[in-house]
Design brief:
The structure is a single chain. It is built from 17 helices and 13 strands. The protein is α/β, with parallel strands linked by helices. It has a seven-stranded mixed beta sheet with strand order 1-9-8-7-6-2-3, with helices on both faces. The chain has a four-stranded antiparallel beta sheet with strand order 10-11-13-12. Strands 4-5 form a two-stranded antiparallel ribbon. Helix 5 runs parallel beside helix 7. The protein is globular, with a radius of gyration of 24 Å. The structure holds pyridoxal-5'-phosphate (PLP). Pyridoxal-5'-phosphate (PLP) binds next to helix 5. GO terms for molecular function: carboxy-lyase activity; pyridoxal phosphate binding. Pfam families: Pyridoxal_deC (PF00282). Belongs to the group II decarboxylase family.
């Protein structure tokens, strides 16, 4: 990045300098625009990481910001619209959101009319809260209906509604969930312990359909099936295509369950479903995102693979009336929309999501989709997958000193690489080196990886998510750093 040359992390000196210049007392008169600007540009910005400006920041799943998205975000700030109520005679902001959500649905090979409840959120965590809240509303009402009565969490509250519905446990049945799913369960009064692992012991990212059935059949229970698409450590997808989704759908319908998909970064793989794509090495990834249209709610992140600035996520669900029950901002006449009664009216965002006042986060998404289109985003994704697979092939080579995870002794290298999406999980073969691997890699400051644990041992992880990925230079730098680390 411009201020840091080739480095993806600021120098220690820049960090210390920035901390030493931070104001700790509120200045009574203020330092003024010019001094404040100078302080930000000279003290603070040089001490920020290069996650947006460098394609070699591989931590978490970070993404970046496409130039057009940065431009649009600046406009969103300058214009400071509050996209809360649909007011078509006053601003076009809600129409832009609606258009962005429709284009986004199409980018992801979804029919917008199948997902009448669609809205932008602050990120995938918020989307998981929204998706599970809709799920909770549905499964309790459905259990009550099957008992010949009526109950709604939105009106009665969780305690009274579950009592009326005869529910003693609400369970979220899943495989290797992202931590935010448990957080969402806690926020919604379901509790961390409601999240139950029903994975196949021989392939923990997959469902054990036997275990799933056993839990779904538990008396006096109501369930949400949560699909991890993809799993955050390995990038592996929980499901294997239309046949499995059809089975899950019919199980869910039998038991009055809801299907939620956490596809924060995996959803972008649906670009590979475009009929123009014939590359056979994508078959496994395509299978992982096929059939997701049969789910009830889907979480996506825009600040990850879509490469727009934070804070930007989205949620798609199948039922607008259900969402309006959960998220209705009741009895606020001053917030009513002038167009609420027209049949194709855009629903006011405040009645279908968590927030009341909200920023115009649709604008950078709208602008990026307009500027890059399907082909532009597909080309970025293909470069990201190609780089991740090159890195995976490098660490998998017997002479590298590393090993690619998960270990899959029965599979050929080609088969293992075909499972690689944009995440590469790996470790050093030498356990002493492996324990400090992430620190050593990141000490280079030329690339940045995240640490995690895998099967009880330390592991490191590349997430290739930046739009500026360059398969040739980036691969050389990665190989250089990994080579130096293993030789030291
Ligand atoms: C990143 C991520 C989340 C959380 O997303 P935020 O946007 O950070 O809230 C949830 N689920 C998965 C699978 C993720 O990768």
């Amino acid at each position: 990045m411009s201020t840091q040359g080739d480095l993806v992390l600021p120098s220690q000196a820049a960090l210390e300098h920035a901390r030493s210049t931070l104001l700790t007392d509120l200045p009574s008169d203020g330092i003024g625009y010019e001094q404040a600007q100078h302080h930000l540009e000279n003290d603070i910005v040089p001490a920020l990481n290069g996650s947006s400006k460098s394609s070699r920041y591989y931590g978490f799943v970070t993404g970046g910001s496409l130039p057009i998205a940065t431009f649009a975000d600046k406009l969103a700030v300058e214009e400071d619209q509050n996209v809360q109520v649909h007011l078509p005679n006053e601003t076009v902001a809600t129409n832009v959101e609606d258009a962005a959500l429709k284009m986004l649905s199409r980018l992801l090979e979804f029919e917008p009319s199948d997902w009448p409840h669609r809205t932008f959120t602050t990120g995938a965590t918020a989307s998981n809260v929204v998706g599970l809240a809709c799920g909770r509303e549905h499964i309790v009402a459905e259990a009550a209906r099957r008992r010949g009565t009526e109950a709604n969490v939105s009106d009665d509250g969780l305690l009274a509604a579950t009592q009326k519905a005869g529910i003693q446990t609400i369970q979220i049945l899943t495989t290797v969930p992202h931590s935010s799913l448990r957080k969402a369960a806690s926020i919604l009064g379901l509790g961390h312990n409601s999240v139950i692992d029903v994975s196949d012991p021989s392939a923990p990212h997959r469902f054990s359909h036997d275990l799933l059935q056993t839990h779904l059949s538990k008396p006096n229970s109501a369930s949400i099936i949560a699909i991890s698409a993809a799993e955050v450590n390995t990038g592996l997808f929980a499901t294997t295509g239309l046949a499995e989704l059809t089975t899950l759908r019919s199980l869910a319908d039998t038991h009055g369950a809801w299907i939620h998909v956490d596809a924060a970064f995996g959803l972008q793989a649906r670009l590979l479903l475009s009929p123009t794509i014939t590359n056979p090495s994508y078959t496994t990834l395509q299978a992982g995102v096929t059939g997701l249209h049969l789910a009830d709610s889907i979480t996506g992140d825009a600040h990850k693979m879509l490469n727009v600035p934070y804070d930007s996520g989205f949620i798609l669900t199948k039922s607008l009336p259900l969402a309006q029950r959960v998220f209705q901002n009741p009895s606020a006449a001053y917030l009513s929309s002038s167009a609420a009664s027209s049949p194709d009216a855009i629903p006011s965002p405040l009645h279908i999501g968590l927030e009341n006042s909200r920023r115009f986060r649709a604008l950078p998404i709208y602008a990026s989709l307009a500027a890059h289109g399907r082909a532009g985003y597909l080309s970025i994704l293909e470069k990201q997958i190609a780089l991740a697979r090159s890195i995976a092939a490098y660490v998998a080579a017997p002479s590298s000193g590393y090993e690619l995870l998960p270990l899959d002794p029965g599979a050929s290298l080609e088969e293992r690489l075909a499972c690689v999406y944009v995440i590469v999980l790996f470790r050093a073969k030498d356990e002493a080196l492996n324990e400090g691997l992430v620190e050593r890699v990141n000490a280079s400051r030329r690339i940045y990886v995240s640490g995690t644990r895998w099967e009880g041992r330390a592991a490191a992880r590349f997430a290739v998510a930046n739009w500026g990925v360059d398969g040739v230079t980036d691969l050389e730098v990665v190989k250089g750093v990994l080579g130096e680390v293993v030789e030291k």
